Amino acid sequence: MKLKKKIPLIDQHNKNGFWGNKFGGNFIPETLKKPIEDLTELFEKLRYDKKFLKERDYYFKNYIGSPTSFIKLQNLSGHLGGAQIYAKMVSEANGGAHKIYNATVHCLIAKKAGKKYVVGDTGAGYAGKMLSMAAKKFGLKCKIFMGAKDIKRQKPNVDAMKKNGAEVVPVYSGSQTLVDAVSECMRYWVSNCDNTHMCVGSTVGPNIFVKICGWSTAQISRELKIQIQSEFKRMPKKIKLINCVGGGSSAYGFWSEFIDYDKKQIELIGVEAGGPKNSNLHAAPLTNGAKLGILHGAAAYVCQNNEGQINDTASISAGLDYPGVSPIHCFLKDTKRARYTSATDEGALNAYKLVTKLEKINPSLEPSHAFAEAIKIAPKLSNDTIIIVNSCGDAKKDRDILKERLGKIN
Amino acid sequence: MSLINLAFKKVKTEKRPALLTYTVAGDNTKKKSLEILKSIAKYADICEIGFPHNTPIADGGQIQSSAYRALKNGIKIKDVFSIVKDFKKSKQSKPVILMGYYNMIYQYGENNFINICKKVGVDGLIVVDLPYPENKEFAKKCKKKGISFIQLVSPTTSPSRMKKIIKDSHDMVYYISMLSTTGGKLKVSPKKILERYSKIKKLNKNKNIVIGFGITEKTIASLRKADGLVVGSALCKEISNSIKKRQNPVTNVTNIVLNLRKKIA
């Protein structure tokens, strides 16, 4: 299994949609075959269409607010010693997280496809919030599927979705989290694929959804590359790009432009949700050696039992609370281009506390997992090492959880 | 001739469609589901048995409930096989089709899974999320062992794709009546469904093509021109109701199957 150079990772799959002949594919009900083929054809046309690219770039700049800033976390670096820590503040994007890139592109595609309705799944609520925002912007009717448990714990985003005119459909099946929301969203699409466009919230699902999402979030690393060059005048010799990984959409977007670099120069570190300390529950299939399985239309490492039933997961961050992971991250892991580890709920909370105490930023619980790893490794590294954390979401949505777990919040 | 083909041949002489039932193995217990199967087999021509999965992406609420109930009661794949085996002991000539999601087969190992299917007497397999052409290899393996791999076609299946699927199909093809998960309300008129159905049938008159999704006691008679009709969610729903009302699901489900059979006789 080998990575190819100079070809975007999202395009390095075989004719059946498998990365490394193993991950991804299209394990879908017959009814979705045609809609997915149509979407694939349309996307392949649009992504090389100059007019469409111009439109995308226009909205990325004027609607999303690209580029988001790249800042040095001077106090945190000084406090920890060792590596210099930077953050890419993707949370500055309109709506407060990286999910807006995927949502905007999906709505643009839905318009081109002549669809009037968009549906999407959401865990942390950001994917849903952004899709509802973009749908409103582009005049599409929107329905968002969300686990009942997540509706409770991510209320601010639920309120935002409703305010944007979206219908939020609570999902009571299974564990009532993201995994069930994705299933229910797919079921809805199976029943309404003639007039409805589906937006998968991360780089998971049938091949084309992995591609569209990755293609959209790749904007993050395009910006970052320019920002690094302008900050350091050339590409530094030792960079570590740290990103949380649930489905893997922000991590792919953050790394996309840097995958071709030698890993000795630019190391890619993905941080999964280790779940509550001293519990066996987690949402870290890559870290904990989960078996290959089929979930939501794709083959990937999946937390599951011997029988192929999908495991319950647990994480303080609704956005990472998912038993599967993107096929492209499985590919990055098996080719050893990226390294994956996990942070516990407590680790993420501590990281949140330290970062917000020292810096004027407010990362959500998802990137707090990435900060936990940065805080862990920075003191051991030389001070010419550059750590960059993708602060891919802001903590407004987490205010109830933070209040409960930490008392007073910043 | 396979049991599935024999069943279709028999109903043709009786000038009626085949009645196919779908129930979830282990719903609500291993023992009960076997009792239900044995009892409904008196009126059903082919028994579809679902192996329960906890993330079924194409099933509606009724079948989901059945599957969750079975899993909650500890049903494992080996139990599904033992239900089939026990069923076949008393109803040797009744064709059994197992239906489920690919991850379970994948975890079990394709060859292993097919071998055990053969051993316990499974006649056909439906894998909901393994569409054409991804299913070619698996379908070949099934055929080699004399197990019919049953393909699905839907209203969204393009004509060129339809031709290929029919050509590659084994004893039976399953036509999904409408865009829906299982158990949806019939949102297309029976006339329209039969119109599409006859187009598919024209591609190869020798193939047995059944219609499923949205079929209940109310709708079944209007579709009786088909080679076969599948009723699933209505039965799962009755199991749920019976449990809720503390009644015996065996009698209640059997009554429904008997009524369905009368309506197409």
From TrEMBL, chain A:
Keywords: Amino-acid biosynthesis, Aromatic amino acid biosynthesis, Lyase, Pyridoxal phosphate, Tryptophan biosynthesis. It holds the Pfam family PALP. It comes from the Bacteria. Pathway: Amino-acid biosynthesis; L-tryptophan biosynthesis; L-tryptophan from chorismate: step 5/5. Residues 66-390 form the Tryptophan synthase beta chain-like PALP domain. One of its GO terms (molecular function) is tryptophan synthase activity. Tetramer of two alpha and two beta chains. Belongs to the TrpB family. This is tryptophan synthase. It comes from Candidatus Pelagibacter giovannonii. The lineage of its organism: Bacteria, Pseudomonadati, Pseudomonadota, Alphaproteobacteria, Candidatus Pelagibacterales.
UniProtKB/TrEMBL annotation, chain B:
GO terms for cellular component: cytosol. Keywords: Amino-acid biosynthesis, Aromatic amino acid biosynthesis, Lyase, Tryptophan biosynthesis. Transmembrane segments: none annotated. HAMAP family: Trp_synth_alpha. It comes from Candidatus Pelagibacter giovannonii. The active site is at E48 (proton acceptor), D59 (proton acceptor). Pathway: Amino-acid biosynthesis; L-tryptophan biosynthesis; L-tryptophan from chorismate: step 5/5. This is Tryptophan synthase alpha chain. Pfam families: Trp_syntA (PF00290). The keyword Cell membrane does not apply. GO terms for molecular function: tryptophan synthase activity. It is an enzyme of class 4 (lyase). InterPro entries: Aldolase_TIM (IPR013785), RibuloseP-bd_barrel (IPR011060), Trp_synthase_suA (IPR002028). Its EC number is 4.2.1.20. It catalyses: (1S,2R)-1-C-(indol-3-yl)glycerol 3-phosphate + L-serine = D-glyceraldehyde 3-phosphate + L-tryptophan + H2O. The keyword Lipid biosynthesis does not apply.
